Amino acid sequence: MTSSFNSVDNEKQIHDLQVILEITNLMTLETNLDALLKTTMEGATRMLNADVSSIFLCDYENNEFYSRFIQQSAVKEIRFPLDKGIAGSVVRTKKPINIEDAYNDPRFNPEVDKETRYHTKSILCMPLITREGKIIGVTQVLNKKTGVFTEYDEKILGVFSHQAATAIENTLLHEENESLFKSVIRTLATTIDARDPVTAGHSQRVALYASQLAKACKLDPKNLNELDVASFLHDIGKIGVRDDVLLKEGRLNTEEYKKIQEHAAYTSEILEQIHFSRDLKDVPFLASSHHERLDGNGYPYGLKGNALPLSARILAIVDVYDALTAYDRPYKKAMPVGQALSILEQGRGTQFDTKLVDIFIKEKCYNIERRQHQRISVDLEFGIVFPSNDDQEAYLKKYNTPTLQGIKRRKPRPFSRQIPANTISVSRISAKAECSLKQGISSPLIIS
Ligand SMILES: [Fe+2]
Question: What angle (nearest 5°) sits at the alpha carbon of residue 330, between those of residues 328 and 331?
Answer without folding.
Answer: 110
